[in-house]
Sequence to fold (322 residues):
Amino acid sequence: MREHMIAFLLGFLLDLAFGDPYWLPHPVRLMGRLIAALERRLRKGRKERELAGGILLAAVVPAVSAAFGAAVLIAAYRLGPWAGIAVEAVMTYQLLAAKCLRTESMKVYRRLREQDPEGARAAVSMIVGRDTSVLDGEGVAKAAVETVAENTSDGVIAPMLYTAIGGPAAGLFYKAVNTMDSMVGYKNDKYLYFGRAAARLDDMVNFIPARISALLMIGAAFVGGRDFDAKRACRIFWRDRKKHASPNSAQTESVCAGALGIRLAGDAVYFGKTVKKPYIGDSVRAVEAEDIPRANRLMYLTAIGCEALCLAAMAVLAGRMR
Fold:
């Protein structure tokens, strides 16, 4: 447990310091290649076969990812405790995405500040799945804030919780599920059947982390200063937390919208089609570029709070194991 705690803290600090260098091999890229390779082999065209192929994909990819992580970690700890800690810390670091999320969203912020609408739309298109060509400046800022709010759970808190409980093997299991959902979990003609199992599994593994993330974000709003209204965050969370097709996505979006006093979500264009969505939050004021760094600060405070709680829980458990 002591080694796990040290590695868990080091991995978090490495992510805050360095993010994801583009030159460093990343497990999510390997997962993406595995998913793409299996998709080519498992998709058979008919509804029943696509459903069966999707179920097999949803079973194989997380299992392989977790098994690979466990094997690497076991081998590292057999070399010695410090070798194990070093490898576990790097694996934990690669599972978290706080710095990367901030870096990519702040590219959007800088383009907006430079009065570069085309550059801002191009930057936000790298972190959202919607059609960004129709967005004005406010729409671009809103899309970036929504991405930071939603991925506070998917990219930071959820993998942190799974890693805290089961080590990097559990973290890799989660990342595999999340990566599958981002690649095939769409309700369109192409993936309606093949991606169904991946989408349902993603909903399941994110159900509890999304709600923990929302509660931690409310706590972050209370300590975050005058930019955030924590009482409104609580109210909007309770009112709007279910206003999304996913049972999880609106959890942190509603908190962020309430804390900032802005309105998020609403209709969006995907693959050339307008998708009707309810609004989340109240339009106390218009969304502005400055809301992007505010959302990032809220995300960082939420992540620090989660890290502290996980370490405290580990310390209590370690004390009981003595």
